[in-house]
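Worked Example 4.2. Consider the chain below.
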Amino acid sequence: MKQHCRLPIALLLFLSVLASADSPPGTQSVDLAKAPAMSKETRENLIHAFDTELVYIRTAFPMGRVGLKLHNGVVTPNGQELQMMMSTYGPAAKPGDLARISDIRINARSIRFEINGGPVKKKKWYQRIEVGGVGGGSTPIAPSDSNANARGSFVDLIFDRSVPEMTPVQLKQLLMPVFDFNSKSPLEAYLETVPPKVKQAIKEHRVLVGMNREMVIYAKGRAPKKERERDGDTEYEEWIYGDPPQDVEFVRFVGDEVIRDEIMKVGGNKIVKTEKEVDIKKEPTEAKAGDQPRPANAPTLRRPGEAAPDTTPAAGPSSTRPAAPSAGPTSPGGTSPTDAPPGSPGSTSPNGMPNPGSPPN
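Applying the procedure from the previous section yields the following structure tokens:
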């Protein structure tokens, strides 16, 4: 009897192990509250395992020295604040992009992962070698481009206490909100970042009114034909897919949003969609030059301590024309000195001095 009872129990345990093994990474919670502090050996193993690893991006990464923070599965900044950073500093990586982990730093309570070179432009080892001259100066043997900007970013994985002991699999599960280590293609990684309705439409190669350009490219591919037209004061761009005698689809964009989708069927039927089917949050891609704050250490020609000039525009010139000069005293003959013929006594010379007239004989 005992043997019959043990068999179902063993079978249930075996099935539970299989179910946990088949579940995708990131769905299981990682509990490291009771784990000890990370050892030196584990640090070296994790750095060796994740350095130069290729990952697919699951959230937007802005360029700059601010980066992202990941704490208890929540990414900050997010929402409107993240959109403003993407607009101001530009995108380092967008959802679905393939990126490379270029550096890992394990600190006391956080782990920093830099992607695509990080936010700071680093020099190669040979760019630090300098050759001394006769006058005491030195010249680098391989000067670097000082105008080259860093294009990478980073994310800080933050813990409530010291960095705990963990395995590479557990660390990947903690990083799932920002990195995807299991995608087989950029499309699979991108589909995890869009709403379910858009995801299904992309899989079925359909266009929805309200999609952006990137979604249409994933759904239909790059358009072989594009036309720019104007409807009154509105300028639009139309992407054309297909050629007769097959179905021809016209996807109309205003800005980055699909406002009309028209399909001409082979039999002559026309399908036109103009009602918005999906609402996508718009992300600014470029910042205005005037909106960017002036750096505190910007170069200037003012002396130390000299106040900045007042940039407030002064009042414009008066529109009132100056009054004409009043006429001078008239001569006994009824003419003023300015009316006298040139060269005569009392007239003025071109330089404004009185003309003495002809010398006496």
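The CA atoms of residues 44 and 106 lie 10 Å apart. The helical segments are 2-22, 40-50, 79-89, 168-174, 186-191, 196-203, 213-220. Compare this with Example 4.1 before moving on.
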